[in-house]
Design goal:
alpha/beta; TIM Barrel; 8-stranded parallel beta barrel; two-stranded antiparallel ribbon; 10 helices; globular
Amino acid sequence: MELGIGLPTYGPTAGPEAIGRVAQEAERIGLGSVWTGERLLRPTEPMMLGVGPMPLPDFNGSVYDPLETLSYVAAKTSRIRLGTSVLDALFHPPLVLARRLSTVDQLSGGRLMAGLGQGWMEQEFAAVGVPVNRRGGGFAEHIEAMRSLWSPDPVSFAGRFYQIAEGEAGPKPVRPEGPVLLAGAGAPAAVERAARMGLGLTTVFFGWDALRGTVEMFRAAAGDAALPIVVHVNGAVTTKPVGDRMPLTGEIDQVAGELAELVSLGVDHVFWTSPDTDPDELLEALAQLQAR
């Protein structure tokens, strides 16, 4: 299992200098991956987020684009894997997104892990002119269309939502089957759909019971296919003891004792994002955790 860190693409420390420094330091200390995510819009009106109307955190108002960021990072690193968790596929036409993903994959020498989501915010769907009901079947067709574009030329696609005339479309990804694809999923139907489509899984950690259930469901739907699993932890690893904490966050010794559970579940990558934490402090803690 490899450890990773979310790049400072949002929050008080976000910026080109910080993004490049964190990526290079993550590679130097031996981390396995760096990650970006996508947020197009922070509505001024509070959002309905399970417990009731809540405003999105301020840092959602300015988020660096995930793929442009990874292209920038690809030029500053040579070995570390570059991931998105997640990029909202439905907000981008398959022909356009397939080429952008292939470009990052080529520029990085095949290091891309593309975590793709369906999106959830109605205001973002409206802003890009995509109906919310495109989720589900539209997402599956989007992935199918991109995979067809990564096959040898000439390529074409005819589906319910997307039609692509026969022609040449490149560049192609480094691997003939395309870059590593992960589905951002947590709901049972989405988890099972990802496995049936041959996609890996990237899921946010909300607790051990939820994660165990998600992984069990995913593996059962995947059958004999060895598909990667990525766990995203919203929180930080620290060099100082923490009392009240979520699992997989807190002081190094506290977290180190919990990583064996992820290994037993067959998790391939785990990474931490914490926009309120100094990224240099998080890197220092992850370096010590990596050394364990």
